[in-house]
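Re: the multi-chain job from yesterday

Posting the exact lines I submitted so nobody has to dig through the queue logs.
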Amino acid sequence: MVDHVGPYHAGDYIFRAGEPFDAIAAVRAGMVKTFVDDSLGNEQVLGFSLPGEVIGLNAIHGSRYPCNAVALDTVHLCRISFPRISMLASRMPGLQAKLFSLLSAEIGKAALLAANYRTEERMAAFLLDISNRYARRGFSAHRFNLTMTRTEIANYLRMAPETASRVLRRLSDEEVIAVKQREIILLQPERLALMAATDDASE
Amino acid sequence: MVDHVGPYHAGDYIFRAGEPFDAIAAVRAGMVKTFVDDSLGNEQVLGFSLPGEVIGLNAIHGSRYPCNAVALDTVHLCRISFPRISMLASRMPGLQAKLFSLLSAEIGKAALLAANYRTEERMAAFLLDISNRYARRGFSAHRFNLTMTRTEIANYLRMAPETASRVLRRLSDEEVIAVKQREIILLQPERLALMAATDDASE
DNA sequence: CGGTCATTTGAGAAGCCTCAATATTAGTGG
DNA sequence: CCACTAATATTGAGGCTTCTCAAATGACCG
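And the result, structure tokens for all chains:
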């Protein structure tokens, strides 16, 4: 029922929009990007998934994947057959509850970043979000690697890549963070939290 | 297990952020606004729920409501005890699947509007979204009432109320829509769809 | 070392927000 | 039924943020 799959390498598709849905997957290692292509063929980044997080949950409804998922670096997954875990959940109320909770948690996660409408606020919220998510999985909260490109970050945060670059530089100049390529060090997380009007207390 | 509750009147709270979660609810009539208050006490509108839609799904995880819900007009609900429907789902695989599907569908709904970053695109996407949702429930797709205020729409769409007003006026001047107070008539839905880069084919 | 891609930087234009004032609507009490 | 009030909505002007376009720099790979 649970298969260890991978490694996927940077650029490999894990699933594509429109493919029939049969399994959700937990990221064991690496970073996954989910995205859709809009009517003009432009990419719209929906999110990034870190180790410990589950992808494919939005595909249960409609029984097809509504988005694409690609590996941003070397990715290992636990593939979980949905029909089978679903059947098992019928007999194990604890598992069922776990699945309900997992799905519920996923609802409205995107809203966090959407809330703030200054670019600096969105970037601050994004960095804190990644930080919290790494921390929860036992990685360092104040020093981490943003596997994705600036363009992908900007796309996700709905700003031009140039703006993303400038915002990061400004934060770096103010010594709120340190940036070395795609590696980020949070020097003053408190100040970041102040910038992100919507500080997320839940994660 | 299912209680018909209401009527709630405009401004009445259905639940408040932080309250213990015990039930989801289907809207039978009226319009519900869900929102959170950020650290500065500003309201952040998360969404609007129409008849036939379910609220409270994001509260399963954490067992407390993570947001507020208020009635925007006269609202009637079907209140569904979550522990009980959950228990029932264990014995009825069809019901369980239905719940999984419901939760899955809710994931990433907010992302649709977030995608476009011109104010006009977001407004167009919003109007089409409401239209589709009314249509799916058997109401008119091209003529409907936006129960909420301009300020609430603007807040939801992350723009200033003045901008929302101007965008609606522009669309009205171009005869893409007709606006009479809070009543909207879609005169040229095709043109709206073109404006909303991310036209949602799924709903 | 050369080529490709990602990133940064600069300058100008466009979009949107803010502030302020006016207009409209709905509700209230005389 | 008609002021009167409060809330909502619209409109205008100016300024700031962010985007676009263009070019230069830097990182990575064969």
